[in-house]
Amino acid sequence: MARSAKRTAPAATLHAAKKARTAPARRDEAAELDGDESEVNEFEGFGGSDGMMSGEEDALDDEDGSLEALDVQESDEEDEEDSIAGDGQDEGSDMDDQMISDDGEDLYANLDREMGDQEDEEDDEDEDEEEEQDDDGGWETVGTAPSAPLIAPAAELDKKRKAKAARKLSPAELRALAFAELTASPISNVLSSQVSALLDPLTPAAPSSSPLQPVLKDLHTHITNLPKQKAVSLDGLRKKGRVVPPVEGHNGKWAKMDLAWEMPRSEDLRVTGAWAWGGGYKEMGEYVVEIAVAMPQSLLQQKDYLFPRFSVKVAHYLVILASLLPSSLGPVTTSYFPLSGSLGYALDIRAAVKKGEEKVGLAKAKGAVLRIRIVAPASVFPTNKLAPTGNVVRPPSLLASTEGDNPQLDPASLPPTPLHSTALHLSTLSLSTTHLKYHHSLATSYPAYTSSVRLLRNWAQRRGYDASLGLTSDWWAWCVARSLNVGGKSAAGDVASLAAGGEAWAGWRKAVEWLASANWTEGIWFKSMTDETYSKDEFRRAFKGKPLFVDPTGTVNLAAGIELSTLETLKQDAKETISLLLAGIEDERKFESAFAREVRVTERFDNFARIVVPANPKVDADAAVDHPNSLSYLVSSINSTLTRALGTRARAFRITLPATPPLSTSAPAPKTPSAVTLSLGLILDPSDSLRLVDQGPSAEDEEACADFRAFWGAKSELRRFKDGAIVESVVWDEPSADGLGPQRSTIVRRIVEYILGERHGVPATNIDFFAGAMDHLVVEPYAIRRQIYLEDSVATGKGFTNVITAFDELVKETKELPDLPLGVASVQPCSPGLRYSSTFTPAARRLKDFERLPHSMRHIEPHDMLLTLESSGRWPDDLEGIQKIKAAFLSKIGEGLEATRSVLRAELVFDVDARSNDDNVALEILTATGWAFRARIFYDRSQLLLEEREEQLGDAADSSTGASPLDLYQQRFVHAPKHHAAISTLQHHFPFFSLTVRLFKRWVSSHMLSGHFADEQLELLVASVFIDPATTFNPPSSGATGFARVMERLATWKWRDEPLLVPIYTFTSAVTSGRRAVLPTTKKAQAVSNFQELRLAKPNIDEHAWVIATEEDVEGTVWGVETNKVVAVRIRGLARATSATLEEGVVKGGLVVEQLFSPPLADYAFLIHLDASRIPRHFQALAPEPAALASRSRSSVLSGSMMGDLDEEDDDIRVGWDPVADFVDQLNCLYPSVFLLFHSEHGSPVIGGIWHPSGESPRAFSVGLSFPVKPVAAEEGKAKVVLDKKAIFREIERVGKGLVVKVEETKR
Questions:
Q1: Three-state DSSP class for 656?
Q2: How far apart, in Å, do the first and last CA atoms of the chain sit?
Q3: pLDDT band for position 208 (cuts 50, 70, 90)
Q4: Tell me: the pLDDT tens digits for 280-320?
Q5: Nearest CA to 747 among 628, 882, 645?
Q6: What gap in Å lies between CA 1302 and CA 1292, rounded to an integer?
């Protein structure tokens, strides 16, 4: 391909900066050439230690393919010392002495030399002419690498600002300025120490000081002096017992071709890769040193650019070289390491010195792995043959039709093979050397460049980005290089760079910001160092719809072989990291979230699937011609299919293949499996993912409609919508199995299952999804729902709408009641069922023949609400009188509601255990449609009276009864309504909050922790996950992911040492403005201070183990008085086990979600077994007993027990009755300091108990012990007694007669 003779001018901004350095007086003149750019660009250039580039066009040497760049020496002495020498002949350099091998050849390819021969600098007049040329027609020509921006004096900056006309900045520019200010700002000493501590174990010894130098020299000498080997084929090597890596063409006719082997030329063996330019990276204690060995030109032919000729010769050369390694390496192990795409394999060499033996050879460089790659020498492949639009792999159908012939092929008729062309370019020594020099010059210009690359790579690896996705080690270096504004024009406000910040942290932030805004499909270019090797149009045509990221030479697409979906996921991760960096939290927390926190797939993705496909699928061979194998083509096709099928439902997704393991050179290759498992991670849009209809093209566009029908198959149908549009559509409204209703949350799963089966023949049984697997746990069995509910809210898909509608109707009727002394001014809901957070979806009960239901299915859950009456001055001034007035009003309201006939029953209920000045009266309402409500009256003056009473009594006010009447009043009438409103608002912002909190409550109950945590506590904990300012993820868009994150929060929260801060009341303003919600600074400081005081005052943590502070409760003690350190430790241990089991089951397969909700009963000291048929909520148990649900015994649960009268009728409808909870409360009152009980509120027939440590210890006998004791052997003449456990078990059975089956002590 002939190169264009057109000369491209450097960017005006570059020359403006260069003139600023060489001639400050000419700044204004240069700035006029770029008048439309931001004023920041006037002071940002790319000159530096490399010297400034002249306008002379770079040339591509046709002989060896290396790039030549112009090197202009600075006139001043300091710049001359810093500039890169033209020929690398600095004799005084210690590094140069170590880089030169024994035979005088440079293993490091003269890194201190420019990327080409030095040429004379043109005069300023010619330079000025080129500045004025329009560069829109081609790539900008710049130096080899960017250098430090020139910082103008403050006065000069001010002058320039005043000279320019002010213009309004766009939102994107404002965001860029905000982030630039953040990037340029100094970091704290603590953060700097954290960054250094992270980088230390990642940074290998520099080449100049590495003990590898003599090893590399010996290796170079040995390889370049090897004798010529006898010609042999790949099959011949196999017969000799050699392992041949499975490259393209390793079987068939190519494997039978005898190939010669000769030693490489001395100058064709070079150290390349990241370690050579200082960017080495330690991973699990190892770092890779790449060595490029160019095959002798005599072994290659010009037509070897046609695959698989070159790959076969490379494999042959590598296998023989692996058998000829020098003994100077010492004991080593060798293996073939798979490279990405069509690059084939490299040879890995590791030290194999046993422990205690002397370290020799390679073992002296701890952790070093030599990776030898076979490449092509310069000028072997014609440049025009390797164009992105060219063809280097002949289609199989064409080869079959022309077998035995030698036809003249029309290149235009052949499909482009850009992936193979890219692989050939990357397999040339000239391009590898050019890239090496480029990064080396960057590392020289920017001291923090290498550290920034390591930070970015570490950040990415924690999120699962590795070479199996095509993201090689060099990829992250290119991203950092591009983020330095090497390509394109400067963005407004782009004032920060590594040179300005001088910190690895700043460079990493800069790179992440660039990744967050990268547009891969439009194409990303560096400023080219040379003429256009290939035009932009060629790249865009060859990589249409694929990511495009062209290297500085304009030769290869660095993103070739990387799926667009992978880079979009990377972009999404970068956006969330930027959001984290802009959050108003401490830098240390930002660092911990970005680098220290373990990233689990169950937390990161909203849905995760395992897809089993054949290892060697049958595909169209011609269509897969540009892929190394059929599996690679299938994965790429699935990516394209899912991109189109999911559309806006998924913000990003990523398909990951299992990593290809290295092949040992001494052991036979393992048998190839018949199937492989792909991992699909989805990041969903919370609203679009629930969309029922996918609309296609209009019926008038016949061609588009035909394409739509061909893609969707039988699911496509022509529909007319309300706006009159007639379009092709796909509807996803089919109900789920087991009466779970439409289940919009599973639409994405159904789309993936259908389209993979339709387009790629993958059966639904081969696809295992994570999200949705737990949904059945928060729904009663379908058969029971049909039996007890008047209308199944789940099966109909109405969800919580039914109960809210019933509540609104009751409120309307209550407000319209006549003949009330004071009308009802307002009604506030105050119940989990009315804020979408009850474990089970409320549904109207079938009241007809209710008495015929077994006792295990009779529970009716009431929904609390608070009534506010019209104001009046006739309320009494004493608290006891207020309760009597409340009872009278509620009785009158109940009579009025019963008169409307919409209410079946309205009864007053009293709390017999309440104090006289507590709120102790409520109205239980049972509507004719099967809904139950519990109403209380809110009277605001009660708070003032309670405050006056506490002030009068002081510390003596109910000091022995736990929470004071004022605390209970504020909890019920002040904080509870506010909490309800805040949670309802949160649910409207985050659709999957409801399912998450319901799953979490189900988990807490299943592990028998009911009664130790208030509903409000659990809801605040889940809310902290959705509005977490320190997370690097989007808010969860599935209940399963939300549940996984809650488990992680529980497992990592240090509740002993820090409160949980949840800005539940002010998060809306932050979320709507795109910021992260944080607790206001003053309230945060107050919350931390209150927490420290609480821990100092009550170090035993017998209550308020969880301190969850909000804007309305900075002390964090409104909820959770019942939560002590024992249950806090218990739930954290359970969360850790659940999180680990969940991650393993999802990633490896075989997850049984019921196991996550099964309590480990062996942990308890004793178990109380209950009669399941007598538990009204047993139908909600995780595994209800069929016999208990079918029985209809006439014996009463109260008969003969201390829990009620013998003659009490048990067939009446009892709203909210839970005998298990009452039984546990009664036992706690009888033995308050003897044991701790654990039970499930959802009908489990087992109660677990553990003994209090002090109760099990022998003690001296005394009168008035509150528990039975028995004597033990006397010690030193003193009589001792110990807790009589069997007597307590008998007492428990007596108290629970009719409910308790037995009490047993577990074997621990």
A1: strand
A2: 80
A3: confident
A4: 999 999 999 999 999 999 999 989 999 999 999 999 999 99
A5: 645
A6: 9
Pairing mode of beta strands 607-614, 767-769? antiparallel
Enumerate long-range contacts of 1141-1148, CB under 8 Å, 24 or more apart: 1142/602, 1142/1044, 1142/1047, 1143/600, 1143/601, 1143/602, 1143/1044, 1146/601, 1146/602, 1146/608, 1146/770, 1147/601, 1147/679
Query: CA–CA distance from 919 to each of 945, 969, 972, 1122 (Å)?
Result: 13, 7, 9, 20
pLDDT of 1 strictly over 90: no
Residue that is written with structure tokens 């159908």 in the block: 397
How confident is residue 103, by pLDDT bands cut at 50, 70 and 90?
very low
Note the pTM of the prediction, 2 decimals: 0.85
The sign of the CA dihedral 1012, 1015, 1016, 1020 is positive
Q: What are phi and psi of 1303, to 5 degrees?
A: -125, 130
Q: Look at the block and give the residue holding tokens 């052997």.
A: 1273
Q: Which domains does the chain possess?
A: 12-174 (no CATH), 603-692+732-771 (3.30.70.3020), 790-962 (3.30.460.10), 990-1158 (1.10.1410), 1160-1305 (3.30.70.3030)
> For residues 424 and 310, is the Cβ–Cβ distance under 8 A?
yes
Hey, what are 976's tokens?
A: 């509870």
Q: Which two tokens stand for residue 1085?
A: 């400081």
- DSSP structural state of residue 816: T
| 415 and 394 Cβ atoms separated by less than 8 Å | no
Residue 710 has pLDDT above 70, yes or no: yes
Omega within 30 of 0 (cis) for the link into 308: yes
Q: DSSP 3-state assignment of 992?
A: coil
CA–CA separation, 1255 and 1235 (whole Å): 8
User: Quick one: tokens of 19?
Assistant: 């003139």
For residue 385, with 0-12 CB atoms within 10 Å meaning exposed, 13-18 middle and 19 or more buried, which class applies? middle
Closest by Cα among 981, 978, 925, 984 to 807:
925
For residue 536, give the H/E element and its range. Answer: helix 536-542
Residue 256 exposed, middle or buried by CB count within 10 Å (0-12, 13-18, 19+): exposed
Residue with tokens 């440049």, as numbered in its chain: 383
The one-letter amino acid code at 49 reads S
Query: Is-contact 231 313, C-beta < 8 A?
Result: no
Task: Tell me the C-alpha distance between 414 and 395, whole Å.
Answer: 8
**Which residue's entry shows tokens 């909050």?**
993
What is d(CA 982, CA 997) in angstroms, rounded to the nearest whole number? 14
| Residue 899: band (very low, low, confident or very high) from pLDDT cuts 50, 70, 90 | very high
- The first and second tokens of residue 717, run together, are 């149908």
Alpha helices in 930-1074 (DSSP H): 941-953, 965-969, 976-989, 993-1006, 1015-1026, 1039-1052, 1067-1072
Pairing of strands 287-294, 368-375: parallel
* Confidence tier at 465 by pLDDT (50, 70, 90): very high
What 3-state DSSP class applies to 482?
Answer: helix
**If we measure between CA atoms, which residue out of 650, 606, 750, 541 comes closest to residue 1039?**
606
Chain position carrying tokens 């002296």: 364
| Type of residue at 1180 | Q
Inter-residue contact 42 to 156 (CB < 8 Å): no
Side-chain half-sphere CA neighbours of 364 within 13 A: 13
> Which SS3 state, helix, strand or coil, does residue 403 take?
coil
Name, in order, each residue with C-beta under 8 angstroms of 194's C-beta and a sequence gap of 6 or more: 588, 591, 595
Distance CA(997)–CA(918), nearest Å, equals: 31
Provide the percentage of residues in the chain whose pLDDT is more than 90: 66
What single-letter DSSP state applies at residue 205?
A: P
150 in helix, strand or coil? coil
332 contacts 371 by C-beta, under 8 angstroms: no
Q: Which residues, in sequence order, are CB contacts of 137 under 8 Å at separation 6+? A: 6, 8
Beta carbons of 903 and 933 less than 8 angstroms apart: no
